[in-house]
Design a protein that fits this description.
810 residues, alpha+beta, two-stranded antiparallel sheet, binds flavin-adenine dinucleotide
Length: 810
């Protein structure tokens, strides 16, 4: 045997073993066999064996490896490890990981994805959606709510309370509905299609707030008292964390609670003297019970030996002396109840702390744990629901509205924007289904909830801008028949709340993702703070060598994927989706490799390098979004008709992933490393493109043509055809316009005229007069004209109607 042959065998075997992630001992054993074969063929001599022994022995003998490799590295790691505040640590500890972890590990198990059960509605949930939710939608007049009353009507408020809309998360034993996360999401999606005020009002008490906190952490007596009252709507809750000085940096709230003894209801008791100044608090103006976050201090050590206990949450009835509440903010013309509150020396008993005095100082942990769940439901569902309805409405409008003698939806420029709306609507719903499904499986998916919140609210904003552009002046002139403008105005609200988006993208998604989803980083960090030195060394050694093997394997995988174009990777389906799985697996290996190299190269600086961190987060996010689409497609029976939507959504994610990697490499601080990484990941350059014009055309057509795929896209939305619901009118008119086009053509042919496609009632008369059409066909033309006019008309007002009299008096 020739030495070069042996070397080729050694390199191939090394590569194969690292690709396959074999253990260090197996690796060593196989290498010994290879060395022995080399010795037999006289290509491996004593020096090679000696070198091999010098490398392999310390790695395989635990004591030597730990003493001479792991121990000094542990000491170094402790020195360079990023300092974490207590609030950061609690945020990292909160929640669980799920398929996000799989995507982070370089080789996602697609069978696992498809084996997660598809979330379904129970009979009770379905009845609720078809009954009270549908009725509620029919009761709400969004123009009345947003322009005239700056509030929901009293009837609607009462209906919400009577039908337990504020109690979807409250357990049945307390009189609540105890709905699954999936069902909550369907309810919110339907409501938001009708009114953002309605969806926000229902969403907030069912998300992070007193109800959730009480169920998770409340004492028995707090639960028994408050939960039935909340379920019946006898109490309206709000939750106040944000202060003028502490918005995104909510851990630094200046609001205080001092433990002391004072008289309360005639008796001297142990309690807390509270001072707060909060703003932006949803439902505060109408709240009867205020969930309050503040920093608790115990200067006289009345409950223990700690003087500064930290962030604590308490439930405060809003009628206690010293509380100012009731004034309102005016968030972007979406006047849901939201306002400031202040408290001056408000004294409350110590057992007002949620969970009692044992939970003093545990407030931040409670909040971040609940946020892991709530953030995946409310805002993503509101965003997805809004865009689902708008996708159908904009598709219908594009088919109905004509310019240059053509439906505007046939114009390529409009098709591009329509395709973005359709593809995003498909993706957004896929993400809400998958993420709420995870919650219903018992997960508290902190990274996924941040991904869903950020990307769905961003996609909602960009899609509504597309819809506005397609509607032209119809989207701009406000009034009862404008179904877009309030959504457009209100889009930045969802961007800002529950973790403002720039912060969520820059810090949270990857910051938590890297630590929580990485198979070894959390273990390394934990080992570094372990107080028992022997345990610390053992844990660190195990994590470190696992990590090294993992990194080498991801470099091998990335290289292999690039060299083979990832065509050899396995995929669960051998159809048009096969390539998507292969590319996602390839990008997953790239993410794992890039992540390790960024951590190694930048160390604790990675936390400050927000734009690097944001791009790593974008890669992880797009992998998750695409996975959700593939799961949805499979769960819905792999319908061929839905393929354009799936393809658009996944190809957009793949393109975004490639762009994120490209931008990351272009901006990577170490230029040499970046060049090497580029050769590994993009040896022939970037190659993926945005969804093609042809695909855009297919999606745009789908939105404009009644069909099963379009129905699935708008499933569960409020599309009732009662002559009042503008979305029902759009749907009906779309069908009528399509049905009457051949009739219109008949009249044109019979009269030998190129008639314009308006005043269809007159066309009907003309058609009848020349006996070209039947009476039934004439009626169809007349009906289509009525619908067409209703769809394209905009509102106008008398000048006085536009003046808000109460504001004028100010
Ligand atoms: C309509 C509405 C309803 C709300 N409801 C509630 C409620 O019910 N209860 C409650 O307690 N709070 C509520 N909030 C508060 C909301 O959660 C905060 O507004 C939000 O956390 C952002 O705080 P801020 O507005 O002060 O922005 P700031 O914190 O001042 O942030 C300004 C900008 O800086 C960015 N930023 C901040 N830090 C970083 C960073 N490290 N890296 C990159 N970018 C960063 C942010 O992303 C943002 O773009 C509500 C707010 C609004 C507007």
């Amino acid at each position: 045997m020739d030495i070069s042959l042996w070397l080729i065998a050694a390199v191939s075997l090394t590569w194969f073993m690292s690709y396959s992630r074999v253990s260090l001992s197996s690796f060593t054993f196989i290498f010994i066999i290879l060395m022995a074969v080399g010795t037999v063929f006289n290509v491996i001599g004593f020096i090679s064996w000696l070198l091999f022994a010098i490398i392999a022995l310390p790695l395989n003998l635990d004591n030597i490896r730990q003493q001479f490799i792991s121990m000094p590295l542990l000491a170094l790691f402790k020195k360079i490890m990023p300092q974490m505040s207590e609030t950061e640590q609690q945020a990292i500890d909160a929640g669980t990981t799920w398929f996000d972890a799989e995507l982070f590990r370089g080789n996602p198990d697609w069978k696992k994805l498809h084996n997660y059960p598809q979330p379904r509605l129970s009979a009770q949930e379905k009845t609720f959606l078809d009954g009270p939710v549908e009725e509620l939608c029919s009761m709400v007049d969004d123009w009345q709510t947003t322009h005239k009353m700056a509030d929901l009507s009293p009837d609607v408020w009462q209906f919400l309370k009577d039908n337990k809309f504020f109690a979807m998360i409250i357990k049945k034993q307390y009189g609540g509905l105890e709905f699954s996360a999936f069902a909550q999401s369907r309810v919110l999606q339907k409501l938001t299609g009708v009114s953002s005020v309605l969806a926000s009002t229902v969403g907030v008490p069912n998300s992070l707030g007193p109800g959730e906190l009480l169920q998770e952490y409340g004492t028995r007596s707090q639960q028994d008292y408050y939960l039935p009252r909340l379920a019946k709507g006898e109490e309206i809750p709000c939750f106040a964390l944000t202060s003028p000085e502490a918005g995104s940096d909510a851990g630094s709230i200046p609001d205080t609670g001092i433990i002391c003894r004072q008289t309360f209801e005639g008796k001297e008791i142990l309690g807390i003297k509270l001072n707060w100044d909060k703003r932006y608090i949803t439902l505060a103006p109408v709240a009867t019970v205020l969930g309050l976050a503040f920093k608790l201090e115990d200067p006289d050590n009345l409950i223990g030996d700690k003087k500064e206990l930290g962030i604590t949450c308490a439930l405060i009835p809003t009628n206690i002396e010293g509380i100012t509440i009731g004034r309102r903010h005016f968030p972007l013309n979406i006047p849901f109840q939201n306002g400031p509150t202040q408290g001056k020396d408000v004294f409350v008993p110590i057992d007002y702390i949620i969970g009692g005095k044992e939970m003093a100082g545990q407030g931040w942990r409670m909040l971040v744990e609940c946020l892991s769940v709530g953030r995946a439901i409310t805002l993503p569902s509101n965003s997805a629901g809004g865009i689902k309805t708008i996708a159908l409405a904009t598709g219908a409008y594009s088919r109905i509205r004509r310019q240059f003698k053509l439906p505007i939806g046939k114009m390529e420029g409009i098709e591009e924007a329509l395709a973005r709306i359709g593809g995003n609507a498909y993706l957004m719903d896929a993400v809400t289904i998958m993420s709420t499904g995870a919650i219903d499986l018992g997960e508290k998916p902190s990274v996924i909830s941040a991904i869903a919140k950020y990307h769905l609210t961003e996609k909602m904003r960009s899609s509504i801008i597309d819809a506005m552009d397609i509607h032209g002046g119809k989207g701009i002139c406000m009034g009862p028949s404008n179904y877009l403008a309030r959504g457009y105005q209100g889009a930045p609200i969802a961007i800002t709340v529950e973790g403002a988006n720039i912060l969520t993208r820059s810090l949270i998604i990857y910051g938590q993702g890297a630590i929580r989803c990485h198979p070894y980083v959390l273990a390394e960090l934990q080992a570094a703070i372990e107080t028992d030195p022997e345990q610390a060394l053992n844990d660190f050694d195990h994590a470190l060598f696992g990590h090294i093997g993992f990194s080498i394997s991801n470099i091998s995988r990335s290289l292999w994927c690039s060299v083979t174009g990832s065509h050899s990777l396995s995929a669960p389906f051998n159809d048009k989706t096969k390539r998507y799985y292969q590319l996602l697996t390839r990008f997953s290996a790239n993410l794992a490799m890039l992540s390790d190299i960024a951590m190694l190269a930048l160390g604790s600086d990675l936390k400050r390098k927000e734009r690097i961190s944001a791009r790593l987060g974008d890669i992880l996010s797009n992998l998750y979004l695409a996975s959700a689409c593939l799961k949805r497609f499979n769960d819905e029976g792999r319908q061929t008709e839905d393929l354009p939507l799936l393809q658009w959504a996944v190809e957009d994610c793949l393109f975004n992933t490639q762009q994120a990697i490209d931008a990351l490499l272009s901006n990577f601080p170490n230029k040499w490393l970046a060049r090497i990484l580029r050769v590994i990941i993009f040896p022939v350059g970037t190659w993926l493109t945005k969804p093609s014009d042809n695909l855009d055309h297919k999606v745009a057509q789908l939105l404009q043509t009644p069909c099963e795929a379009r129905n699935r896209l708008g499933k569960w939305q409020y599309l009732v055809r009662d002559g009042k619901n503008v979305f029902g009118i759009l749907e009906e008119t779309l069908e009528d316009i399509i049905a009457c086009e051949p009739v219109f053509t008949k009249v044109c042919i019979a009269t030998d005229k190129k008639l314009p496609f308006y005043q269809l009632d007159k066309v009907a008369g003309l058609g009848l007069s020349v006996n070209a059409i039947t009476e039934k066909e004439a009626q169809l033309l007349i009906k289509a004209e009525q619908g067409r006019k209703a769809v394209i008309d905009v509102d106008d007002f008398d000048s006085n109607e536009l003046i808000a009299p109460n504001l004028l008096q100010k």
